[in-house]
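Narrative of activities, Objective 1.

The group set out to show that a structural description can be obtained from nothing but a protein's sequence at a throughput compatible with the screening campaign. Below is one input-output pair from the validation batch, recorded exactly as produced.
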Amino acid sequence: MKYPRIIVSALSGGSGKTITSLGIISSLKAKGYLVSPFKKGPDYIDAGWLALAAGQPCYNLDTFLLSPSKIIQLFKTHTQSDSIAVIEANRGIYDSIDYEGSTSTAELAK
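Output recorded for this entry:
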């Protein structure tokens, strides 16, 4: 099954990712798409805004607390075959807890 998705990221925090994500979600909904919203990391404030815009729950993809296989499972469970997923990053695209970038948005995008 295919899972169409968009990841909204930037070079750093405070770059307008939430506003951009909300605009994308609103535009897709206005065109009749079902949107499955996701937020990278343990954020609940932005997730609330994304859920409100999409009209359905937003789920967190936390690369620090969850294994890659669990994140894939969570993503597939909450993305419907007839929807498009919008994933809002946190911090910068390459920000991570280690030099390898294991918890970065760039790694999540793979």
